[in-house]
Write a structure and sequence with these properties.
InterPro entries: Uncharacterised_pept_Zn_put. By secondary structure, the chain is α/β, with parallel strands linked by helices. About 50% of the residues lie in helices and about 10% in strands. Strands 1-4-8-7 form a 4-stranded mixed β-sheet, covered by helices on one side. A two-stranded antiparallel ribbon has the order 2-3.
Length: about 280
C-alpha cells in the first residue's frame, strides 16, 4: 500500500521502554498459542487478561528501537490517522460525533485498563480505556504458524478491525453485548452467536474503512485487499479449530468462519453506508 503524509498523535509506543510487568497466561505454550489466535482481532479479553498465570512478571531491558521498528511506528501512526479521519467523517455524515481511540504498541506485556496486556493475546481493543493494544511480534506468528502472508495492509486491516470495536463502543453496541453476557438470559451457544455477530460487524467496519479511506487517499495497491482477506480467513473459527483440535464445532464459534469473515469484510468494502453492517439482525434471526 502507498503511504500517506498523515500521522496521528494518539499512538503510545511503549516498545523499548523496559519493564514489562504482568504475568504470562498459564497453561503452557499450547494454551498461549491457542489464546493468541482465539483472541486475535477482537473480543472481550478482560477475563483472560485479568486471570494472570502462575509465572512471575517478565522484565525487559530498556533499549533503543531499530530503524525497522521506528518505521513500523510511523506506519501505525499513519494508519491511526487514516482511521481517525475516515470515522470522523462517517460519524459526521450520520449525525454523530467521533472520539478517537489510542493505539498502544508494546512488547511482551504492559498495563491496560482491562488488565495486563500480553503479547500472547494478540491485538485487542480495551473498551475501558478506549485503546487498541498491539505487540507487533504477533504478525510473525500469524505468518509462521498459520500461513497468512503478512503485508503492510494485513496490519492495516487488523488495526481497522480493532478500530471497528471502538466504533461499536462509541455506538453503545459493546455495552449491549456485555449486558447480554451478564444477564444470564442466554445459553452459551446463544452468547457465542452474539460474539460472532460482534466480530463480523468489526470486519464489516474494517472493509468500510478501507473503502472510504481509499476514496480519499488512493493508497490501495494490487494485492492489498487480497492480503486482508487472507488474514481474515486464516483466523476463521473453522480454520483455528481444525488446526488446534482436528475438527470443527460450529456451535462454539465466537468470531465467525473463514467464509463469513471474508464475506463481511467485502460487504463493508462494497457498502455505501455504515447502516448496512447490522450483523445482529442478519445473524441472530
Amino acid at each position: 500500500m502507498k503511504w500517506t503524509e498523515d500521522r496521528s498523535t494518539n499512538v503510545d509506543d511503549r516498545r523499548g521502554s523496559g519493564g514489562g510487568g504482568g504475568a504470562i497466561v498459564g497453561g503452557g505454550l499450547g494454551t498461549i498459542i491457542i489464546a493468541a489466535i482465539v483472541f486475535f482481532l477482537g473480543g472481550d479479553p478482560s477475563a483472560i487478561l485479568s486471570s494472570g498465570g502462575g509465572s512471575a512478571p517478565r522484565q525487559t531491558e530498556k533499549r533503543e528501537l531499530s530503524q525497522g521498528e521506528l518505521q513500523i511506528g510511523e506506519f501505525v501512526k499513519m494508519i491511526t490517522a487514516e482511521n481517525e479521519q475516515t470515522w470522523a467523517q462517517i460519524f459526521k455524515d450520520n449525525g454523530m460525533q467521533y472520539r478517537p481511540a489510542k493505539v498502544v504498541l508494546f512488547e511482551s506485556a504492559t498495563n491496560s485498563s482491562c488488565g495486563t496486556a500480553q503479547s500472547a493475546m494478540g491485538p485487542f481493543y480495551c473498551p475501558a480505556d478506549e485503546s487498541v493494544y498491539m505487540d507487533m511480534s504477533f504478525f510473525k506468528e500469524l505468518q509462521k504458524n498459520f500461513g497468512a502472508k503478512v503485508t503492510e495492509f494485513t496490519i492495516a486491516y487488523v488495526m481497522a478491525h480493532e478500530m471497528g470495536h471502538h466504533v461499536q463502543n462509541l455506538m453503545g453496541i459493546l455495552n449491549e453485548t456485555d449486558n447480554a453476557r451478564r444477564s444470564d438470559k442466554y445459553s452459551e451457544a446463544q452468547l457465542n452467536k452474539i460474539s460472532v455477530a460482534t466480530e463480523l460487524q468489526a470486519d464489516f467496519y474494517a472493509g468500510l474503512w478501507a473503502k472510504y479511506s481509499n476514496e480519499r487517499e488512493h493508497f490501495l495497491e494490487p494485492g492489498d485487499i487480497d492480503s486482508a482477506i487472507e488474514a481474515a480467513e486464516a483466523v476463521g473459527d473453522d480454520n483455528i479449530q481444525k488446526r488446534s483440535q482436528g475438527y470443527v464445532n460450529q456451535e462454539s464459534f465466537t468470531h465467525g468462519s473463514s467464509a463469513q469473515r471474508k464475506e463481511w469484510f467485502m460487504k463493508g468494502y462494497n457498502a455505501t453506508n455504515i447502516k448496512q453492517g447490522d450483523t445482529f439482525s442478519q445473524l441472530l434471526r
